[in-house]
């Protein structure tokens, strides 16, 4: 099963990124043969910035992304969205890769399920 999860919201302020990552990580944990790709768009591209410091007891998107990548999840970041926010030249979370609308289109067509947050 191939699942594509598209996240559009910033890492903090709403819980959309958090819930998208919870779902992605649970799929990889419970169904080890599944293939899961996360595509970060719009303000969600800032989820991939490293060195996030959150208060104790608060979820940390960077740690969740690292777990996702360690579990063989594929993490893509919209290049034009990153450029628009001035982060395309910055270091991003290890295991992530800048991507394009063309690749997102192919991922969408190839996936069995597409979920947006």
Oligomer: single chain
* The CATH top-level class label: Alpha Beta
- Give the overall shape, derived from the CA principal axes: globular
Helix content: 25-40%
Largest sheet report: 5 strands, parallel
CATH-level-4 superfamily name: DsrEFH-like
Mean pLDDT: 97
The rounded Rg comes to 13 Å
Q: Structural class of the secondary elements?
A: alpha/beta
According to CATH, what is the topology?
Hypothetical Protein Ychn, Chain: A
Count, helices:
4
Ends apart, CA distance between termini: 19 Å
What are the secondary-structure elements, in order, as H or E? EHEHEHEHE
Low-confidence segments, given as residue ranges, are none
Number of separate structural domains: 1
Features of the shown structure:
single chain, 117 residues, alpha/beta, Hypothetical Protein Ychn, Chain: A, 4 helices
Walk me through what this model shows.
The protein is of the alpha/beta class. The protein has helices at 16-30, 61-70, 79-84, 101-110; strands spanning 2-7, 35-40, 74-78, 96-99, 113-116. Strands 4-3-2-1-5 form a 5-stranded parallel β-sheet. The longest helix is centred in the N-terminal third of the chain and has 15 residues, at 16-30. The protein is globular and about 35 Å long.
